[in-house]
Amino acid sequence: MAFDLSMIKALYERFPERVKTARSVVGRPLTLSEKILYTHLWSGSPDIAFKRGDDYVDFAPDRIACQDATAQMALLQFMQAGKEKVAVPTTVHCDHLIQANNGAKSDLQSALNSSNEVFNFLESVSNKYGIGFWAPGAGIIHQVVLENYAFPGGMMIGTDSHTVNAGGLGMLAIGVGGADAVDVMAGMAWELKFPKLIGVRLTGKISGWTAPKDVILKVAELLTVKGGTGAIVEYFGPGAQALSCTGKGTICNMGAEIGATTSTFGYDESMERYLRATGRDQVADLANSIKDDLTADPEVYANPEAYFDQIIDIDLSTLKPQLNGPFTPDLATEVGTMTQKAQENDWPLKVEWGLIGSCTNSSYEDLSRAASIAQQALDKKLKTKAEFGINPGSEQVRYTAERDGLLSIFEQLDAKIFTNACGPCIGQWARYEDPKNAPKNSIVHSFNRNFAKRADGNPNTHAFVASPELTAAIAIAGRLDFNPLTDTLINEEGQEVMLDEPTGWELPPKGFDVKDNGYIAPQEDGSHVTVAVAPDSDRLQLLDPFMPITNTAVQDMKLLIKAKGKCTTDHISMAGPWLRYRGHLDNIANNTLIGAVNAFNDKTNFVKNQLTGAYGGVPDTQRDYKKSGIMSIIVGDHNYGEGSSREHAAMQPRHLGVAAVLVKSFARIHETNLKKQGMLALTFANEADYDKIHENDQLSLVDIAEFAPARALTLRLTHADGSSEDIKVNHSYNGQQIEWFRSGSALNLIKEQNRA
After folding, report:
1. Which residues are annotated as catalytic?
2. Nearest-CA neighbor of 83 among 156, 178, 185, 191?
3. Contacts of residue 433, Cβ cutoff 8 Å, sequence gap at least 6
4. Which of 86, 116, 151, 577 has the most beta carbons within 10 angstroms of its beta carbon?
């Protein structure tokens, strides 16, 4: 089944002419990224050349995808917009609220029992507003999107940072906060600063133990977690064309871990093969009709240095398997060099779990290649030293893999086949009864993120990111420093054996199959559908509009916390057990910044209450300030808000009474989320001024009345001894975004405009 054919056909009909016009306006050949950007302008046909990294531009995305954790808040916001139906094709996918514990059957039933209220809410809202609904167990959002909705040359946004997976099919797929999605659902333009462009030239060909995952693990090492901020990464070259479609998706997906706006590949034969294998011959035929426009102009790839802001070269023929971690996805170790590095850093060499799957590495190809390693353990009489966990990406992948005997291979090694859902990747893993006091250990997984406490809540779990193939090999060996290219293992008969190189299939030889893919189409007319939210529910809460932050309110603000070092969205609004409150703003606000490290005492969730002088939790302290009608400010370090797209990390502080966040630098999505919620997202003009902020400071934006684009603001620091000093703080607000602030939120402004 092919979705949205009429929309895709309409886009492709105007695509060549708009590309031609854009080429004329810009005055040079175009990259693929530029072609997609210029063909999706809100204004229609391009008439101006935009400046990369500077100009804010309004776009018209083709579709939206939401996962269940973020969809709750997005749809609660959309319900306030006064619309009868979403303006563009939209889907909701139930994949985050399913805990991995005992195995797929019991875990899914447990999720249905514990989160039925939320699932019913999402299904009813979807039914009412014309949204496609993918039920619990249908699969992980990004794999389902790749299988059903992604198409070359399209633009989509999704309320999850790994939306970029669809770049594997030649889209510009961009993770956003829920408020951005609401704008587009409501028929408004979507605003984005015109991205810079990073070109990654892939030469050679992957072989042996090296996998597509290793490409992005290498890129993460080269660029770091913030090196892609504000940029699209476009992969090209003969090495790119030799990769499978799902392999391309893997690379794009983890691009979220380098801060990139998105990543993509030009349309090629592997994409065509995947479209046809997933029942979308019509889409493939349409794409073939304009295929020259679905990749960069030939001049670009012939001389990329003239068209990209940065070029990275990777020779796939010499690329070795990588292990990235622990605690950050950009700390790379080439296989075969781990022993010394682990010993120097006191990383446990014994590996307790190998986890295969997630939104990026749960394709049929990934499972088949990992299964080929698992089969060798059986054939060569190897006793597996670590436990296995498998998360298939979709019901279609799971059903087909089960039919072809892949899952039974893992089961013969006592692997746990978890639900077609995110599970351990997002902290939904019931590994320990008391994770905070759990032992120091190492795990290896194909998931993208490995922040502290991410998978299992244990701060002592050292998580390393690897390809599914290498994950399987290390799980069998039970050692972090196992090198399958050179090392032998002792089997149950006392013989030395080596693992052979992995093998697998790009696509299932017998084709894909599925009995029930889990899709529920909305009613044509949902006007009669009632969306009920119980007033006493602890899972769901209807939203009240945020009141605008006045000029007076940002005078004499209290310092809530000065966060030290890495402060991701996991630190600001933890996942794991807190996922149950993603639809209840007041309840989830109780986890606000409890993972952030206080720069004044190196403790988490332990800050000074300036009203009482006592130390306590961050949310409790801020609730005291709110009761007293006092607003506060958060101070942070570099890349503040790295990680997930969750807008809760912005909405929770806003709900509690935080007016501003001042940091050395922001992650893109989080900065936008703060703006959308009517807060002030500020950066130090001089990073050294971070050290000038003291624990007992009161902070005032003395010239907020003159808040305007490209104009720095003055922040007055009043210290406990009565002295004061002024520092300059920058912002990136344009005129419209300042209107969001003055209105209290972007949604408030939309409602005002709808009433006008």
Report:
1. 95-96, 160, 449, 644, 646
2. 185
3. none
4. 151
